[in-house]
Design a protein that fits this description.
8-stranded antiparallel beta sheet, 13 helices, 23% strand
Length: 460
């Protein structure tokens, strides 16, 4: 347990920066510390609502002088592990969002969500590489590599970062790019928040005229047929197609489309950048399969990209984790369905398998980054709501599924897929052995006191 910070030190912090400085006794503390995952307790001794990069730098310098550990949060989607004690820096107020359509770039502050980027860029025929929901913050997602909806076409989000403004644990503000401290830029691209607090990034936008995508929902009783067909179908897909398949046990809630409430279904997620005619042709084999419960695949504006995955829009309590998946052959399908298929009492809400490869497998030219998973074939993510009835069984059920898939899943994962089930605090599986060694060496250089020790932290 980290000792409580003396009130005089908290008062000193309040005099140094603009923005709220709150302790658990203050009004607004709960709102300032709230995470998207309601099952993850975030209970710092003090939270700072930074209004600009200077406030972030002052807060970090204050913490460094007292060796107070620091956590960082913007939207709260990255809060996979608890935070007890220390200083939490909220970057939610850093809302700079500028799009340059001629240069095809965007510059965003650390509190900006992907939705704001798309609202500014899509009218120019440009998109950023968001993940399954545009409610997620740009910076935290990208620092973890960022697995986009269009990843097989354009690569990881981190591949397109040109520069970053970062406050290192000594309280120093730096701007890093391919010319200025390129090694640090590379370590930030995929290294999550281990080496500093990123206050803004600039990244490339990609031209996109239109999108053919959406979802197809199949009855859960057809799970074996659908999974087997999806595995074989994906083997021949071009890079213009990004897709995943999910086993869903959906509650009877208003946020769930009526035909899917209180049902076990399979959800094909599909996004094609090759045009409407080609997009329709490529998905036809899966569209003709089984007797779908619901089919929303068709031409769409990229502004509506959230309709592909249909992630919950409101904070929920859950446990999750993920692994790289080597194959989805018949044995893997049998193992998965034995734990979570029709007729089982599996409490895990979502089991998603995303196809990797394509542009995700290529290392971009320039600075060497820490993005993991380029050699992966799939990534499997497992999420369970920890609510009655059955919520208490979720962690054990997730572990049982991974155990059943032994021989098919790797011990490695993507940074943003590490999740909250693994309780040992070891993030090493989120990087290659070489990448982890690079990050650990940099951690010992930039953060020898292990100031940044919450959320995806390597052990200095």
């Amino acid at each position: 347990m980290v000792p409580t910070i003396p009130p005089a030190d908290v008062e000193e912090l309040g005099r140094q920066i603009a923005g709220p400085v709150l302790t658990p006794q203050d009004d607004g503390y709960e709102r300032e510390t709230a995470a998207y995952n309601l099952a993850t307790p975030i209970r710092p001794d003090v939270v700072v609502g930074a209004v600009d990069a200077d406030a972030v730098a002052a807060a970090v310098a204050w913490a460094a002088a007292r060796r107070v550990p620091v956590g960082v949060q913007a939207t709260g989607h990255g809060a996979d592990g608890p935070m007890q004690g220390g200083l939490l820096i909220s970057t939610a107020r850093l809302q700079e969002c500028t799009v340059d359509p001629e240069a095809r770039t965007a510059r965003v502050g650390a509190g900006v969500r992907w939705r704001s980027v798309l609202e500014a860029s899509v009218p120019h025929g440009l998109v950023g590489l968001n993940g399954s929901t545009t409610d997620v913050g740009v910076v935290g997602y990208t620092l973890g590599g960022g697995l986009p909806v269009l990843g097989r076409t354009f690569g990881f989000a981190a591949d397109h970062v040109r520069s970053a403004d970062v406050v290192t644990p000594d309280g120093r503000r730096r701007t890093v790019d391919a010319t200025h401290e390129p090694e640090l830029l590379g370590l930030l691209r995929g290294g999550k928040g281990n080496l500093g607090v990123v206050t803004a990034t600039e990244f490339e936008l990609l031209p996109l005229d239109g999108l053919y995508g959406g979802g197809i929902f199949y009855p859960g009783d057809d799970a074996r047929q659908v999974l087997t067909a999806w595995s074989r179908w994906t083997a021949g897909l071009p890079e213009t197609v990004s897709t995943s398949i999910a086993l869903l046990r959906l509650p009877a809630m208003d946020i769930v489309p009526e035909p899917l409430r209180d049902r076990f279904v399979l959800h094909l997620r599909y996004a094609c950048t090759a045009g409407d005619e080609e997009g329709e042709r490529l998905v036809a084999p899966m569209r003709a399969l089984s007797d779908p419960v619901m089919d929303t695949v068709g031409p769409m504006s990229y502004r509506d990209v959230d309709a592909i995955h249909l992630d919950p829009p409101e904070p929920i309590p859950y446990r999750e984790t993920g692994r790289l998946l080597d194959d989805l052959d018949d044995d893997a399908v049998d193992a998965l369905l034995g734990q979570a298929g029709p007729g089982t009492d599996c409490p895990v809400t979502l089991i998603e398998i995303r196809l990797l490869g394509g542009a995700l497998a290529r290392t971009p030219e320039g600075v060497a980054d820490l993005v993991a998973g380029r050699d992966g074939r799939y990534v499997i993510g497992l999420v369970g709501l920890v609510v009655p009835p059955g919520g208490e069984r979720v962690p054990a059920a997730i572990e049982s599924i991974l155990t059943a898939l032994a021989g098919h899943v790797s011990e490695r994962t993507l940074v943003n897929f590490q999740g909250s089930v693994d309780g040992d605090g070891d993030s090493s599986r989120s990087w290659t052995e070489e990448g982890h060694a690079r990050l650990l060496a940099a951690k010992n250089t930039y953060d020898p006191d292990n100031l940044l020790r919450f959320q995806h932290a390597v052990r200095a």
